[in-house]
Every structure is written in C-alpha cells, then in structure tokens.
Amino acid sequence: MTEPHNSLEAGAAVAAALAEKIRNRTARVGIVGLGYVGLPLAVEFARAGFHVTGIDVKEEKTRRVNAGVSYVGDVPTEVLAPLVKSGKLRATTDFAAVADLDTINICVPTPLRKTKDPDMSFIVSSCQEIARYFHSGTLVLLESTTYPGTTDEVVLPMLSKGGLEVGRDFFLCFSPERVDPGNPKYQTANIPKVVGGCTPACTEVGRLFYSQALEKVVPVSSTQVAEMVKLLENTFRMINIGLVNEIALMCDRMGINVWEVIDAAATKPFGFMPFYPGPGLGGHCIPIDPFYLSWKTKQAGIEARFIDLAGYINGQMPHFVVDKVQNALNQAGKPVKGSRIHVMGVAYKRDIDDMRESPALDILMLLERRGAILSYSDPHVPTLRLDAMTLQAEPESSAAQADCVVIVTDHAAFDYAALLERSQLIVDTRNALKGRNSDKIVRL
Ligand code: SAJ
Question: Over the chain, what is the mean pLDDT?
Fold first, then answer.
C-alpha cells in the first residue's frame, strides 16, 4: 500500500481499519466507570459480540462484575453472569488495559461542588490514566454529562499529548448518557443515542460503533452540539418543575387545587406536557445538570436566569412543605416542637432507593431543627443518616402514633387507604391521596 500523503489520507486509513474491527466485532471495547451507565453499556456491547473490558477504580465493583454478580438494578445477574462466564466481559482496576483497547467509553460521575461549580475531577483523572496507555487507532467517547466544550477543551488536549492528531490517529466523540434507572420501557439498548465528534470522521466512527449494539443512533455535527443536547433535555425538566412549583405556590395562596388544575390542563392534546409540584428537586441529574450549563454561559457573559430562578424556587419547596406542616399542627393546637412527625417516603422519587439530593433530607433537617420528633417509612431505604442522627425505617403502622404524617415520596408500595385510616393529620406533597377526601388531609 502506498504511504498516505497527508493527514486526511492517513486518517481515512486508520478510520477504515477501526471501522472494519467494529463491523467484524474484533474491536476490543473498554468502558471506564461501571456504574448505572457504564455497566449496562458494557453488557450491551458484550451481548453484541464484542470482548469488553470494564475499568473502574472501585475494586468492589470489578470483583463483583468478575464474579458475574450485578449491583445495578437495570442489569440482572442472570444477564451479566453468562457474559462473564463466556469471557466476553471482564473488569479490572488497572488502566494498563487501555493499551489493548480499540474503543473507550468514559462513563464517570460529573457532580457539582458545593459552590455549584462543575467537579471535573473524575473526567480529568480518568483521562490522565487513559493517556498513559493511549495509542493510535483508538475511538474515545465521553458520556458523562458536562458543559459544552468539555470534550474539545479538556479531554482532547490530554489525549493529543503524545503528538497524536484527532481525526487522523484517533477519534473522539461526545455522546450523552440517557439512562433512566428503573425505567421499565426504556433501557440502554432502545434509548436513541446522540453522538457528535471532533471531526466528521470521528462522528462517523462513533455512529458506526454505537449502531452495532444500540437500536437508534443520532449523529450530530459536533461534540458541543451533543453536550448541549443533554443539558437542554434536563434543563427543560428542571425549569418546568420549577414553573409548576411556582404555580402550586400561587394556587396555595389563592385556595385553588393545583392538582385539579394540572389534570384538567393535561387534557389538552397538544402543546402541553404535565409536570407536578412536589417537595423539592432530587436526583443526580435534574438538580445538577442545568448548573453545568449556567456555569459555562456565565463564563461567556450570559446570565442563565431561568435556571437560577427555577433552582431557587425548587430549593424553596422543602421550606414550603415544613411551613405547611407547622400550620397544619397549629390548626390542631400543637407546636412542631415535641410533636411526632412521621415521613412517608424519603427516596428522591417514587419506587427507587436513591437518596441523592433527596428533598426528604432537607425536610427532615428543617423539622428536626424546629424540635420535631422524627420517624419515617420507606421500603426502599432501610436506614438514613441525618447530620449526627441515624434513623431506621419503621413500618407504615408507625404513622398511627404521629401527630402529623408527611407524604414526601409516593411509593407504590404504600397502603394509602390504611394510612388515611390510622393517621390524625396528613400533609400530602405528592397528591398520593388523590380522590380521597378527609379533613385530615392537607394537600400541597
Ligand atoms: N419531579 C417533580 N415533578 C415532576 C417530575 C419530577 O417534582 O413533574 C421531581 C422528582 O420527584 C425528583 C426530581 O424532580 O425529585 C427529578 O425527577 P425526574 O423524574 O426528572 O427523575 P430523574 O432525576 O431520575 O431524571 C432522569 C433523567 N434521565 C437522564 O438524565 C438520563 C431525566 O432526563 C429523565 O427525563 C427522567 O429520569 C425521567 O423521565 O424519568
């Protein structure tokens, strides 16, 4: 074969060689970060016939993967075990494995610091390790939610250090993770996958890669577009939740049942999408992702006022709930101080066990500071730490001993009829008692 005369030709040759490996499944796939995003992805590519190496800094995770025992709800052990047994999937804590990989997905956390600045430490440390063993002919795909520009400004320089040129010697894309843990209908394989590369060749190799294991791939023109797609998706949710929370505050003041308003508005067959008020905004995506966008736009001199305002309103909801509890007890001639308050549901949303950013923690803290005697029920959260205090979940029947019950998370497992029967007073922040009428119920 004649030597390529320029980068374009060289890149085409490298891309063609990698594309062939991807098509015939001999490409060795690496997944950095074996959490709720990385492990399902590793399983999908192993099921598609690739040899997959999972890399994680937590030895506990790599040990359990290699034992064929899942720790991610969306990955049943009976799916994971055969893939490990057949040798299709293995895990390691040693980044030296990168030397033998052809593709690398980076699926590590991107939390916010307390100052609401992006914490890029996981992306940086992963790329530092990858760079040590990085070689030409590799496709790298960053999946961690982050601000527009991260792939080109942070990851690319770290991978180019050895003189390798993106689009010629290696390929770099961003592809937002869209995993919704516990979603019974949409899982990794059937959620459309957006992917944008540093160069058109990068985008094409990324598109080809994902199309081997996922049902629908959506190529876009750049890494920034792909980064922005994810932030739009989750900022859209956060702001609309903030809007409906503000509507709830307005309705409360005007004595209007906001839940009835939303249900009736939702009969509009176009141009409307219902969101529901609640005790606040929890989770590891919605309260976090929009601040990656506002942080970046502030640097560009643009104030993301909707994000800041929605963040403020959502942050106020725990205080609003505690005031409702205080007023409801007041109506019963009881101070918060010394009253027994039983919280139903503490996870950040229904039917899961995740406590990250859960508004229940804020509500419990505020009530504790006002002198309440606290207890809670949650079938998914057996114990929780509150500052110096540790609470153990109690049976739902404990509500009978409470001066006030607060429904914070409306798990399907709760017996709401029995709860209404046994409680003296219930503040319902989720409309879980919809259709049940009683003077005992105070609704958001
Ligand atoms: N919430 C409300 N009112 C609503 C919807 C949610 O108060 O109308 C609250 C929830 O109780 C929770 C928080 O907002 O505390 C976030 O809820 P969420 O339904 O957005 O669930 P998440 O945080 O698990 O968001 C994930 C996201 N998935 C990804 O980022 C890949 C989000 O994009 C999904 O749309 C969402 O799941 C989903 O639809 O379940």
Answer: 95
Lining ligand 1 with CB less than 6 A are 178-180, 233-234, 237, 241, 275-276, 278, 281-283, 285-286, 348-349
Residue with tokens 């993301």: 304
In ligand 1, which atom is closest to the CA atom of 279? Answer: 7
Q: Does this chain's domain 3-221 share its CATH topology with 236-443? A: yes
Domain boundaries 236-443, corresponding CATH code: 3.40.50.720
SS3 28: strand
**Residues involved in catalysis:** 285
- Centre of ligand 1 to C-alpha 286, Å, is 6
Burial class, 281, CB count within 10 angstroms (exposed 0-12 / middle 13-18 / buried 19+) = buried
Compute CA 53 distance to the chain's CA centroid, rounded to the nearest angstrom. 23
Domain ranges in the chain are 3-221, 236-443
Sheet holding 139-142, edge to edge: 89-92, 51-55, 28-32, 103-106, 139-142, 171-174, 193-197, 217-220
Torsions phi, psi of 62, nearest 5? Answer: -65, -35
The CA distance from 89 to 220, in Å, is 30
As a whole number of Å, the CA-based R_g of the chain is 25
Q: Is the model's pLDDT at 294 over the cut of 70?
A: yes
Whose alpha carbon is nearest atom 32 of ligand 1?
234
To test ligand 1's pocket by mutation, which of 286, 321, 444 has the most ligand atoms within 8 angstroms of CB? 286
Question: 21-26 contacts: CB < 8 A, separation 24 or more?
Answer: 21/102, 22/102, 22/103, 22/205, 22/208, 22/209, 22/212, 23/208, 23/212, 25/49, 25/50, 25/212
pTM summary value? 0.91
DSSP-assigned letter for residue 184: S
Tens digit of pLDDT for each residue in 133-148? 999 999 999 999 999 9
Q: What is the mean pLDDT of residues 392-411?
A: 98
The answer on pLDDT for 256 being more than 90 is: yes
Decide yes or no: CATH 3.20.20.220 for domain 3-221. Answer: no
Q: Which candidate, 213, 190, 193, places its Cα nearest to that of 203? A: 193
Sign of CA dihedral 259, 260, 263, 265: negative
Give the atom of ligand 1 at the shortest distance from the alpha carbon of 284.
23
Backbone angles phi, psi at 164, to 5 degrees: -70, 145
Tokens of 220: 């876009």
Read off φ and ψ for residue 365, nearest 5 degrees: -65, -45
